[in-house]
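Annotated sample (chain length 241).
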Amino acid sequence: MPGGRLTQQERQQIAVGLADGLAYAEIARRLERPTSTVTREVMRNGGPTGYRADLAHRATQQRTHRSRQAASSGAQALPQAHGRDAEAVRDYQEALTTVFMTSGLPKMMARVLGCLYTTDTGSLTASELAQRLQVSPASISKAITFLAGLDLVRRERDERRRERYVVDDDLWYQSIIRSARSNDEFIETARQGVGILGRGTPAANRLENAARFLDFVSEALIRAAEQGREVLYTRTGTAPE
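Output written by the structure step:
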């Protein structure tokens, strides 16, 4: 598979593939590129319905220029630990951000989460996030409020009384529980509709089946989260097979 950044011709082929309704995997196969490369390219440039090859190419050139400027002016401010390759870390962070975006997070929220997950401490202040992502503190504040509402980050104060935003293992558990509980309102409302629409009618049956399905899935998800919670606290390499 060819390496390096996408060419303008490849971006035009992606646009044609999207217009033809092709899946990312098929477009990637025709380009001989990883599927993740095509997915990341589309999601960061307008999504499947808004992707434009010329605009995407211009935006990439601008991002590359800004990255080079940031690297020349701020490389010393953000050294990479453990001998990591800075460019490889940056590319991986973009890939992780794309995964968060395809799971439903808005772009800025996905960028903040990707940034937090690629730090060894798992926590950063608003100013540190703004510096790393080259965005305004207001954008960080909005993103954190959104992520905290989904239990994907938590806030804490450090010894200097600064507010830090943290991702830790228990947040995955809390997020799963919240997701399971979010079905409860629909389940209750659906069952109310059964009585109103008349039990045994097609509409009532549809709602009843949906409520039973979500009720079963939610209970199973909560049980699995409780049983698997200890995995979050098991050090890599020490877990039993």
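Annotation: Residues 72-77 have pLDDT under 50 and may be disordered.
Annotation: The longest strand covers residues 154-157.
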